[in-house]
Amino acid sequence: MSIGTPSNREEVIDRAGRLRERVAILGGDRVEILAVTKGFGPWAIKLASECEFGNVGESYAQELAGKWSELSHEERESVNVHFIGKMQTNKVRKVSSIVRVWQTVDRPSLINELSKRCPNASVMVQVKLVRNESQGGCQITEASALINMARSAGLDVAGLMAIGPQADAETIRTAYKDIVSLADEWGLKHRSIGMSNDLDIAIECGSTMVRIGTALFGDRPAL
Q1: In the chain, pLDDT over 70 holds for what percent of residues?
Q2: Which CATH superfamily is domain 9-212 in?
Q3: Which among 202, 127, 189 is positioned nearest to 159, based on CA atoms?
Q4: What pTM value is reported for the model?
């Protein structure tokens, strides 16, 4: 399951240092960096751990399970896996013992499956900010009902997650402020918003977690 080839180790370590410094300047110690290892081989998870990124992001159940099988017990224990891709309910069981935070909860059926397979699991409700049917997430008007349902099902709702629109800065800013306002309304700690191209705006708006992949590990290999 070795996807791609390892980037230059020293180059990744250098990028990690510069990214950590940039995020610290923008948001202090309240903003976590989620190292997005999807699309890369197990080496990326190992390197994320070496760079002291304790949280990594994966998007595909089969890919994650394959990588996990190639890691040692110590390597597995060194990171917390956040699932950040669109999750099919029939794939939850495959990675239920691996994932520590499910960031893309967006419908009742997924809440029901998680409560059955992963009681008390830590989750985030994903809100859709764009009109794109291929992208996961609920409408912001549906989020409160899902938060309430997830809590009633015994899940730990840690925050909200969203992918920013491909738009001008003011449009992105408005969308992210809506996410932060809803998180505040529900007393949620985390707002997983912001990636490499818009992390400045996201942190300005109140992000507590930015998801960074290629800016750390380089270009993902072509499929």
Answers
A1: 96
A2: Alanine racemase (3.20.20.10)
A3: 189
A4: 0.94
